[in-house]
Backbone:
C-alpha cells in the first residue's frame, strides 16, 4: 500500500474484537505494518522455520552443537528501510518475540559464523579476527528480469504466465543436476514473492563448502556469458556438448523452446526480433539468405502455419543442412535455444558464503505475496499469480473467526498447503539425515578417542 493511501485500522487480535466481515475478500488489498503484525502473530511458522535452521542441533544428543543456531545471522529490514544486521537467536521463542516486536518488512538469512554475530565487536576488540562465516547453505538466486532481452510479454519485475515458465525451466535443470551430478538431496525451492526463485541446498556437504568450491559449482552451471552489449552470449565449444548440457537440451530446453516459447513470446513476429536471432548466426551469408527468405514470404498469408514456427523450421533446415556442416553451424541451433531458455544465475550470490537471502514465508512488500516453497517435482503447475497474499490470508482468518488458539491458525488459510509441503517433503527428511549425521560424527569421535587411549 502506498504511503499516500488511507491507513487501515489496526486489527485488534489480542482482545475479543475482530473485523466483522462476511467473506474472505473483505480485507482491502495491500501491505502495511498492521497486516504484517497479524501475519506474524497468527500465521508465520516459527517452529518449523527454526527447526530447519538448527539442523538437528536443538536435541538432547550429546553430539549436538548447542551454540550452532545462535551463531546464525538474521537480518531485518524494518519499515522505512531501517536495516538491522547481525541479529541472532538461541531459541524459536526468542526469534518469535523479536519478529513480533520489530515487525520486519523483510527477513534475510545469512551464514553461521564462528562466533555469535551479535557479539562480534567484543571479539574484534580482543585483537583476534575470529568473526568469519563457517557454514552456509549453497544458494542460487534467479530473477526473471535477467531474461528481459528474450521475453516480450513483460519487463523488469513484471511477470505473467507466458514468461514465468522460464523460471520453471531453471528449477527443472538445476534441481536435476544438483541431485544427479552432485548427489545433493535436501533442496528447498522458494518463490521470491515477486519476480524469481531462490534455491537452498541444505545437505551437510553443501553447507560446509568453501567459497572456492561454491564458485566451482556455480561455474559448472554457467553457460550464459557476455555483458549487456555482447550480441552472442552463449558459446558451446567443442565437438560434443557436456553430458549435463546435452541432457538439459534434450530433456527440457529444446521442447520448451519449440512447443511454448516460440509462440508465447512471438520470437519471429517482427523484423527486429528476427534480426536478434540472425545476429546469433556467425556466417553473414547464411544470415542474409534467411533474412531474404523471410522478407519474401512475409506478405503471403496463404500459409496457415504460425509465422514463428515456420521461420524457426526454415532456420533449422538451413543451419543443419549438409552444406553448412563444415562451417560448424549445426551447433548454432543449440546456441540459440540456450540463449533464450537456459537458467541465468546471479553468480555472486552462489559463490560467497556471506550473502544474505530472503527467508521463506516472508511477505514481499511490493506484491503482498508470501514467499512460498515450490515443489520441484510439480513446478510446471506453480502459478505466481495465485500465490496467497497478505490481505487474502487475513480475510481467510477473519472468515474463520479469530480463534484465541493461534497455534495452527494457518490450517484455516490457503497457506496450509505450503507449510505442509515444507514440513513433510523438505523438513522431515532433512532432520532425519541430520540426526544420522550427528550420530555418525559422534560415534567417529568416540572411536577416535578410544583409539588414542589404546595407543
Residues:
Amino acid at each position: 500500500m502506498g504511503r499516500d493511501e488511507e491507513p487501515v485500522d489496526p486489527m485488534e487480535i489480542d482482545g475479543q474484537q475482530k473485523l466483522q466481515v462476511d467473506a474472505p475478500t473483505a480485507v482491502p488489498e495491500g501491505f502495511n505494518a498492521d497486516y504484517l503484525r497479524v501475519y506474524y502473530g497468527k500465521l508465520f511458522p516459527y517452529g518449523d522455520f527454526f527447526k530447519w535452521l538448527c539442523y538437528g542441533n536443538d536435541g538432547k544428543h550429546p553430539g549436538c552443537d548447542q551454540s550452532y543456531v545462535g551463531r546464525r545471522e538474521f537480518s531485518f529490514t524494518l519499515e522505512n528501510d531501517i536495516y538491522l544486521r547481525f541479529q541472532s537467536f538461541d531459541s524459536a521463542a526468542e526469534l518469535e518475540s523479536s519478529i513480533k516486536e520489530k515487525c520486519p518488512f523483510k527477513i534475510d538469512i545469512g551464514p553461521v559464523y564462528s562466533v555469535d554475530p551479535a557479539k562480534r565487536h567484543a571479539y574484534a576488540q580482543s585483537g583476534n579476527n575470529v568473526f568469519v562465516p563457517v557454514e552456509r547453505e549453497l544458494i542460487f538466486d534467479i530473477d526473471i528480469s535477467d531474461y528481459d532481452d528474450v521475453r516480450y510479454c513483460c519487463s523488469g519485475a513484471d511477470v505473467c504466465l507466458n514468461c514465468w515458465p522460464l523460471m520453471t525451466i531453471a528449477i527443472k535443470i538445476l534441481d536435476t543436476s544438483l541431485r544427479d551430478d552432485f548427489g545433493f538431496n535436501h533442496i528447498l525451492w522458494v518463490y521470491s514473492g515477486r519476480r524469481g526463485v531462490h534455491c537452498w541446498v541444505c545437505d551437510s556437504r553443501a553447507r560446509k563448502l568453501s567459497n572456492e568450491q561454491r564458485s566451482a559449482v556455480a561455474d559448472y552451471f554457467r553457460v550464459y556469458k557476455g555483458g549487456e552489449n555482447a550480441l552472442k552470449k552463449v558459446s558451446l565449444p567443442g565437438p560434443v556438448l557436456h553430458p549435463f548440457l546435452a541432457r538439459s537440451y534434450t530433456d527440457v530446453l529444446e521442447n520448451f523452446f519449440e512447443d511454448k516459447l516460440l509462440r508465447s513470446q512471438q520470437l519471429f513476429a517482427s523484423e527486429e526480433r528476427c534480426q536478434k536471432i540472425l545476429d546469433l548466426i556467425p556466417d553473414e551469408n547464411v544470415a542474409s539468405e534467411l533474412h531474404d527468405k523471410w522478407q519474401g514470404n512475409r506478405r503471403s498469408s496463404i500459409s496457415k502455419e504460425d509465422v514463428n514456427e515456420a521461420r524457426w523450421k526454415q532456420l533449422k533446415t538451413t543451419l543443419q543442412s549438409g552444406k553448412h556442416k563444415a562451417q560448424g553451424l549445426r551447433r548454432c541451433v543449440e546456441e540459440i535455444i540456450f540463449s533464450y531458455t537456459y537458467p541465468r544465475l546471479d553468480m555472486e550470490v552462489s559463490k560467497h558464503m556471506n550473502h544474505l537471502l530472503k527467508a521463506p514465508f516472508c511477505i514481499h512488500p511490493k506484491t503482498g505475496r508470501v514467499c512460498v516453497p515450490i515443489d520441484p517435482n510439480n513446478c510446471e503447475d506453480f502459478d505466481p499469480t495465485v500465490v496467497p497474499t497478505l490481505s487474502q490470508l487475513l480475510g481467510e482468518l477473519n472468515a474463520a473467526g479469530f480463534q484465541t488458539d493461534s497455534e495452527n491458525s494457518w490450517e484455516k488459510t490457503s497457506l496450509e498447503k505450503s507449510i505442509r509441503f515444507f514440513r513433510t517433503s523438505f523438513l522431515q527428511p532433512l532432520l532425519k539425515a541430520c540426526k544420522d549425521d550427528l550420530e555418525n560424527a559422534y560415534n567417529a569421535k568416540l572411536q577416535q578417542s578410544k583409539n588414542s587411549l589404546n595407543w
